């Protein structure tokens, strides 16, 4: 049995996660068998619905790889159903205030820490003596900072009990601040915003995470203090590999250019 998300978070090492946007248990299993510390199923911008998310979580269980679900929005039903289905953590998009962060934590935690309703239909599988206390300890809550309000209210958000990680979506962070959405950060102001987030995380002892377009970008942000990474997604990695095969097959005589909009987090 692999380590749980909580055991990863209580450790000191940086983690790298896989990202699933294709609605397929087989794709999820492949990502889970690829050596990632964890895998996130994306129900916000991926093509994954609830009835597809559940078997993807089952597939990840086979690989003993702990799973996040990026929920579609900061709503209790989205968060509770993802956790009931077996996710060990949630990534909650577009959190712009301490009040919104508290709402995300409340939906993810059973009373007295929160308001999560009892119904762990898959969550209790393979968890010895599952209880509200055990679940509250195990569940990881990561909130996304990607809006001007989120940046402005960073310290208040990070002070909310139960926020385990901040996850930066560079594209929306840029878009909300009047810049071109991209994961390949070149604008100095975009870079300053990303560094503002990790500096605040250091002050509060919260893990800083970020979505990246390449291994080089992940190394860049790791050097700045980030410790939770994803590089691309199952769809992006498959398309990149397929494109490389086409180019190599014709020894460079045929060029296929991937659109810059292929990365979205």
From TrEMBL:
**Could you say which residues form the signal peptide?**
none
Enumerate the Pfam families for this protein.
Answer: HpcH_HpaI
Task: Report whether Metal-binding shows up as a keyword of the record.
Answer: yes
Annotated HpcH/HpaI aldolase/citrate lyase domain residues: 19-240
Q: Which UniProt keywords apply?
A: Lyase, Metal-binding
Listed InterPro entries: Aldolase/citrate-lyase_domain, HpcH-HpaI_aldolase, Pyrv/PenolPyrv_kinase-like_dom, Pyrv_kinase-like_dom_sf
- Gene3D superfamilies documented for this protein: Phosphoenolpyruvate-binding domains
What is an example of a GO molecular function annotated in this UniProt entry? lyase activity
Does this entry carry the keyword Metal-binding?
A: yes
| Protein origin, superkingdom | Bacteria
Q: Which family does it belong to?
A: Belongs to the HpcH/HpaI aldolase family.
Question: This protein is called what?
Answer: Aldolase/citrate lyase family protein
The top of its lineage is: Bacteria, Bacillati, Actinomycetota, Actinomycetes, Pseudonocardiales
